[in-house]
């Protein structure tokens, strides 16, 4: 009887430990995504100043600037899912790359102090988002390992925890950048 009671206590302690570990890993994933969200918000908030500075010089790029403003407006509405937010970020990054390439055609803009500062801040923001994505993917991998490996898989199954996809680049983002195509477009 005492042996059975000890076995039950050990099983209960292991179960509690696995449960707490899974909760901690899931919270870590949510926290890591929140860091990405904060960085995206910082970048979205940077856009109005960048657009106003660029608008003064780039009269012929109104279509591109309008698209960037539209994407930013969608991003800050607050009624979008995380997946939609990431998709908007991808589109915004592509548009901003086009904008930065077109800046080469405007020497006065390239020399503008405000623009140089905003461009530096934008680049720093890109680097911070990349670091936050790496942290998120590491947290997701840790979480996925915990829910897929035995005995965590038993507790995860009871809790109905599902694997989470890591953030990956799209096929378009994986392509080699062709300077010739960029300057001919």
Automatic annotation (TrEMBL):
GO CC, one annotated term: membrane
Entry annotated with the keyword Lipoprotein: no
Compartments (UniProt record): Membrane
Keywords: Membrane, Transmembrane, Transmembrane helix
Signal peptide: none
KW Transmembrane helix (keyword) present: yes
Gene3D superfamilies, alphabetized: LemA-like domain
Family (UniProt): Belongs to the LemA family.
Record's protein name: LemA family protein
